[in-house]
């Protein structure tokens, strides 16, 4: 018998890359969280962190700090902020994956096309008028409605002949951002000093003031959105072949489209409702993950969720520690990273398409 050389298949290569990327992201995320919890104006040692966490689950250890301030800093201030950042990052990145898939366009992103601004406008309306229709869910509910209107508007305006035109997509995003900006300015004019400060918060984006009660609202929304994204991922792989082909392969294109759009609004609402507008996270992360693990949507959703959480965790760490005794807007930091990336992506897309004229 002659020996047969078995060459690795592309699928095996992609599976190995996905495993390596996932492990790397989890390790980087754990390290970033530890550094973030122990760094800041009130420094803590890693051993003190371990002692506090063990005390939190009822285990006394020699590492437990004697100062009660350590417990307050970790459990009341830093941990809620970090957990909220992880949820927001995952929500924005997964929404970016879904938007790029359903639009069939690499430039689609909740911030670029105005969906984040629409959600922030809805939240600002509920704050300015002091609405409490749905109790503690009022602000997230209005953010969801604003995001839903924005994403449907972008989708139907930018679609032409069964595809999404790049120029129309960008111009639609500019228009929606302008409308939302005007609305935010109007609500700022109408509001009190307190509501004006909150509206400015929406525009800059920040995790400052995160509370466990916020996380109780955000976590279920993000969990539902990510689970739905995982469920529809195989359908998105077929959708990428074209709507006609997807229909022939048994995909209910109309239902898939509506489910994805509503899911995007849900994820953006979860991110915007308590963190404000954080731009470009949904644009940068999916592209980086796609370049590393390939275009298959199921692993892409998982990797993007981890990558988005890591991006926001790192950005928040920089926001808290870059300037002493100051808390920088996290949206500014992500824009500093995402802006040049978007310009590079814009130029590359234009070259590949042979121009838009």
UniProtKB/TrEMBL annotation:
Pfam families in alphabetical order: FecCD
SUPFAM superfamilies: ABC transporter involved in vitamin B12 uptake, BtuC
Compartments where located: Cell membrane
Superkingdom assignment: Bacteria
InterPro entries the record matches: ABC_BtuC-like, ABC_transptr_permease_BtuC
Membrane topology type: Multi-pass membrane protein
Keyword Transmembrane: yes
Keyword presence, Ribonucleoprotein: no
Gene3D superfamilies: ABC transporter involved in vitamin B12 uptake, BtuC (1.10.3470.10)
Keywords carried by this UniProt record: Cell membrane, Membrane, Transmembrane, Transmembrane helix, Transport
Residue spans crossing the bilayer: 16-37, 82-103, 115-134, 141-157, 169-190, 211-236, 256-285, 297-318, 330-347
Family: Belongs to the binding-protein-dependent transport system permease family. FecCD subfamily.
The name this protein goes by in its record: Iron ABC transporter permease
Biological source species: Microbacterium aurugineum
């Amino acid at each position: 018998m002659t020996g047969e050389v078995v060459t690795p298949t592309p699928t095996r290569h992609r599976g190995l890359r996905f495993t390596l990327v996932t492990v790397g992201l989890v390790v980087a995320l754990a390290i970033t969280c530890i550094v973030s919890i122990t760094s800041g104006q009130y420094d803590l040692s890693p051993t003190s962190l371990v002692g506090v966490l063990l005390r939190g689950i009822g285990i006394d250890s020699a590492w437990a700090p004697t100062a009660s301030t350590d417990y307050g800093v970790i459990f009341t201030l830093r941990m809620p902020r970090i957990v909220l950042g992880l949820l927001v990052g995952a929500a924005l990145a997964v929404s970016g994956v879904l938007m790029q898939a359903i639009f069939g366009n690499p430039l689609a992103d909740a911030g670029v096309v105005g969906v984040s601004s629409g959600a922030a406008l809805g939240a600002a309306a509920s704050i300015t008028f002091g609405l409490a229709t749905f109790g503690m869910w009022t602000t997230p509910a209005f953010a969801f409605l604003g995001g839903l209107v924005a994403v449907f508007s972008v989708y139907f305006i930018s679609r032409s002949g069964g595809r999404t035109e790049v120029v129309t997509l960008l111009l639609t995003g500019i228009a929606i951002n302008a409308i939302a900006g005007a609305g935010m300015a109007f609500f700022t004019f109408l509001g009190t000093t307190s509501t004006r400060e909150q509206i400015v918060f929406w525009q800059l984006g920040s995790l400052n003031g995160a509370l466990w009660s916020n996380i109780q609202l955000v976590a279920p929304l993000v969990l539902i959105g990510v689970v739905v994204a995982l469920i529809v991922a195989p359908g998105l792989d077929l959708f990428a072949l074209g709507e006609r082909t997807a229909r022939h392969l048994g995909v209910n294109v109309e239902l898939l489209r509506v489910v994805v759009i509503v899911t995007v609004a849900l994820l953006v609402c979860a991110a915007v409702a308590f963190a404000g507008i954080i731009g470009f996270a949904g644009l940068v992360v999916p592209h980086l993950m796609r370049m590393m693990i390939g275009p298959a949507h199921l692993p892409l959703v998982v990797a993007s969720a981890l990558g988005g959480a890591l991006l926001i965790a790192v950005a928040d760490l920089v926001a808290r520690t870059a300037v002493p005794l100051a808390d920088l807007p996290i949206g500014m930091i992500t824009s500093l990273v995402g802006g040049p990336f978007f310009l590079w992506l814009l130029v590359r897309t234009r070259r590949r398409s042979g121009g838009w004229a």
